[in-house]
Amino acid sequence: METFKRILLAEDDERDVELTLSALEECKLANEVIVVNDGEQALDFLYCRGKFMNRPNGNPAVILLDIKMPKVTGLEVLRQIKSDENLKIIPTVILTSSREEKDLIEGYELGVNSYVVKPVDFEEFIRAVKELGLFWAIINEPPPFTAKRN
């Protein structure tokens, strides 16, 4: 069984990327955090395309997904993940500043595992990321890797 924990962080705001990485690193919650800055890159990583064509096998333990991203929105990435037999089992957490009810409803309709609104306070944000990482990367038992390569 694979014990290597990989987190896919799809976030276009550099400040939020730095804060999230700091919180995850402080808790030593993942062996590797892959950061992508738009939805297209997130899908390229998951489908082993483009610059991720030769990435190591295995799905991330969890995907932290912003909604408002360039090229492909987070909700569209979520739609594709949850409609794919090989990817839908990956726990996916929307980590966003959007408090719009329509985004929340659509996220859950598409099958998101959790929807977290980013706190604006620095300490709250760090605490939220630590708790997310602790649950999804350490406590939660991810499904075994069974997906076929595309």
Concise overview:
The protein is α/β, with parallel strands linked by helices and 150 residues long. Helices cover 39% and strands 15% of the residues.
Descriptive report:
Strands 2-1-3-4-5 form a five-stranded parallel sheet, sandwiched between helices. It has helices spanning 14-27, 39-46, 74-82, 101-110, 122-139, and strands spanning 6-10, 32-36, 62-65, 92-96, 114-117. With 150 residues, it is of the alpha/beta class. The chain has a single domain (6-138), classed as Rossmann fold, CATH 3.40.50. The model is unreliable at 146-150 (pLDDT under 50). Helix 4 (101-110) links the parallel strand 4 and strand 5. The two termini are 22 Å apart. It is 39% helix and 15% strand. Helix 1 (14-27) packs across helix 5. It contains five helices and five strands.
Chart the SSEs and their pairings:
Blueprint: E1 6-10, H1 14-27, E2 32-36, H2 39-46, E3 62-65, H3 74-82, E4 92-96, H4 101-110, E5 114-117, H5 122-139
Helix pairs in contact: 1-5, 2-3, 3-4
